[in-house]
Amino acid sequence: MNHPADTPARHEGTSAAYFDVDGTLVGTNLLQPTFYYLLNQARPDMSALRVGRALLGAPAMAMAELRDRRLFNELLFSNYRGMTEDRMVLVAADVFEDVIKPRIFHGAKELIQKCKDAGQRVVLITGSLDHTTAHLAAYLGADDCITNRLEFKDGFATGKLLRPVVAGPEKAALIVADARKHGHDLLRSHAYSDSYSDVPMLSVVGHPNCVNPDERLARLARAYRWPILDINVPERKSATGRGSSRR
Amino acid sequence: MSVDHPCVVTIDHRSRPRVLFSGTKLVEVDLPVGSKVLYPKKPMAGLSDPDAAVRYALNHPLGTPPLYAKLRPGMRVTIAIDDLSMPLPPMKGPDCRQRVLEPVIEMLDQHGIDDIELIIAVAFHRHMTADEIKHVVGPRVFNRFYPERLYNHDAEKPGGLTYLGTTDDGIEVEVNARAAASDLVIYVNLTFVPMNGGYKSLGTGLVGYRTLRGHHNPSSVRMSGSYMEPKRSELNRRMVNVGKLIEEKLDVFHIETTVNNRMFDKPLDILGKNEDDLSTLEWQGLRALVKTLDKLPQPARQAIFEKVPAPYDMIGVFAGACEPVHDAILEKCHQQLLVPIDGQFDVVVFPIPYISPYNVGSFLNPLLVSVMAEGYLHNLHRGAPLLKKGGTMIILHPCSDIFDREQHPAYTEFFHKLLTQTRDAMELHKRFEGEFRRHPGYIQQYRTGKAYHPVHPFYMWYWGENGRQHRGRVIVVGADNEYVPGILGYETASSMGDALRMAKETGPADPSLACFRICPVLMADVNPEPPPPAIEADAD
Predict the structure, then answer these.
(1) Which ipTM value was assigned to this complex?
(2) Are residues B96 and B207 in the same domain?
(3) Which residues 83-112 in chain A show a CB within 8 A of chain B?
């Protein structure tokens, strides 16, 4: 007999789970992968030059971060100007293996699997670049990602981001557009983030969730009774799952 | 004419007001003359040497060879332990489970067994914290096994459950993978009310959703006369089927304990006594407590009752096969809890206290208030409900709109989003349970936080289903708002007098009334058809 709880409830649309990445699923920020790219140029002198330039621009980036997340993204990604697309693709795999993968939170993969078990389409939405996020999405089992993309001309990065820039409030608009495109019911959809800057994105879905939230977001979550999750709990070492000694 | 049991008091003109729980407050209530008040029995004497009793039980089990005869070097042993939902409130150390675990582990050590893991059988309850586990198992066991080999059952862990088979009535049984892969499972139980223990322990505590849904559903509760009376409980019948299937596949050694009802230590032990039996000093002390609690803020009141562990004494311990062990424990439970009473009543007053099995360390939220009234207290009967079919239930509780953020996150959504759409348990089960049971965020909070599983609020609503089907009206006295009782389908009254006037509108003009004077815990042993009054012999 089919159990009622096994039959999906009748709703107008399907549902999705939208995940912020940095700080939510992975203990990285936008700076770490960027510096890995800068340090891994074709020649050491090119690496030194790029890192030097980036350090000179650091105060401006710090000011931008305080004022406007989108401006910060644009300044950060201007450091990629002149890099070749094939080099970006090549280094992306190393960025994932060396920088991102070791910092993935213990419970990230299982949480995404639970979303898929619940019949949700899992989408990563992040200010990071498409090349690196694609590796992460494949590893975690996400279905899709909405990322920042560099503009390339003749195979070289211009240092500009293609529109729309994925940051702050823009994430909310991108989620709404994505849900409309795929026929998702936003009231039944879930979103996950660690940062107060993502309140707009959390606010457009019916089920916002805060993962390892910063203090401002935690206060808001308590006020609105949004679930606060900790997914960075180490796995318990146990004998569970070992073969039986009896049968 | 039959004579009332000493724990059944009839209110007369000289009776003092009754002092009843209303959440974390106590209130004085005047009940009409002729009302019957059921009091808990006096605490039975504890075992004079509980540690010796445990050793005797292990070596003289019922229905199986002694524990030592089952042991051999190198075997894999899993010890499952009841969680802190019982007893209420948590008992003073050493807890019964500590008294059992220490000699059991010593015996395992003596037989060269080192592959031992201890699992708290929480099912969908919240995971116990390290401090709570330490209190239950004792520091010696805790320090040796926690956290790698002493942990909470995780019913949502990928690969954490092993499918054992399907019962004849179609319940898929899957249990904790470590337990399923063990040569011997030892279940250490603390039975507080007759619903606990027996086949339910493994069939609920160490399983997952696929199994729980087979018995934790509205139809099985509707079909149960009382889930505190195994013979009249469809819930119990289904749990027995699950338990029997598990025991066909696994070697299980049961150790059940039970305690008396000494919930309060001095000076709070007066709360369990008949107000008319209190000395003048005790009565003044009780009235002072009523007034003091009224002046204190809610967290302080909660702390007064919660921070002091209960001085329960162990009154029984038996080991061996499930059925004879459980029967022996139930007999002890009944000796302590059952208060015989003749007849059913048009109106029953249920004072709702501050505590339930599902809010240890947190506030009794509105959904749990309904579980206590229509679920636990209504079901704490044998024979027949205390309330007549269609009668009026009067409950005392503030019904504040407070939900603990850590423990009950899914309860909030269930209460305010689902119950406002429908109170029909069948509809809730069919329309919403599936979506909640897969809610990734709430599941994560259950797995790594202190939250009850997202399906748990549904189970709580189902828990009140037979009471809901049985009662007529529910009137809340002392509510601090109108809308929370409204969501639950309850009415409100400003005083007990008003509530009784309302009850008379839809009931007899002179209704019979019983008051179930919890805490400590008691159980009504109802004879629904009292014997006719004896005909006195003619003096001539």
Answers:
(1) 0.75
(2) yes
(3) 107, 110-111
